[in-house]
Amino acid sequence: MAKRMIFDLRLGPARLIPAALAFLAAFGAPAGADEPTKLGVTLRDHRFLPSEIHVPQGKPVILTIRNEDAAAEEFDSSALKIEKVIAAGSYGTVRLRPLGPGRYPFIGEFHSDTAKGVVISE
To answer: Is there a domain that residue 70 lies in?
Structure first.
């Protein structure tokens, strides 16, 4: 027979709060652990800076890509399944799903000869 935890509201805050905290410790609380890591990338002279982006394995990531060039660029990665056009002098936000360990290349589609980089999940 499974145990059930029952909170008696008549206990009052002095006893109810510790009981609720014990319950959350045992069964998990909404955690900030799933909060995405936020990283910045700059596109300047048709190059990504940094060109190697290190992200924590298994955690969601938000990349903010600031395009300082006078032309639009497309952040493109078949490995990450992402395409995002970023207007000149603007920025774009790219959300990365939690990644397994590995290297995930990306390019600037409009200047693929120079705008290259890699996301490294470790």
So the answer is: yes
Question: pLDDT by residue (tens digit) across 8-56?
Answer: 555 555 555 666 555 555 555 455 557 899 999 999 999 999 999 999 9
Average pLDDT, integer, range 82-94: 97
Global confidence as pTM: 0.71
Identify whether 8 is part of a domain: no
Domain count, the chain: 1
CATH number, domain containing residue 113: 2.60.40.420
22 domain-assigned: no
- For residue 47, being part of any structural domain is answered with yes
What's the rounded mean pLDDT across residues 57-70? 97
For tokens 């652990």, name the residue: 33
DSSP calls for the chain: --------GGG-HHHHHHHHHHHHHHH----GGGSPEEEEEEEETTEEESSEEEE-TTS-EEEEEEE-SSS-EEEEETTTTEEEEE-TT-EEEEEEPP--SEEEEEEEGGGTTT-EEEEEE-
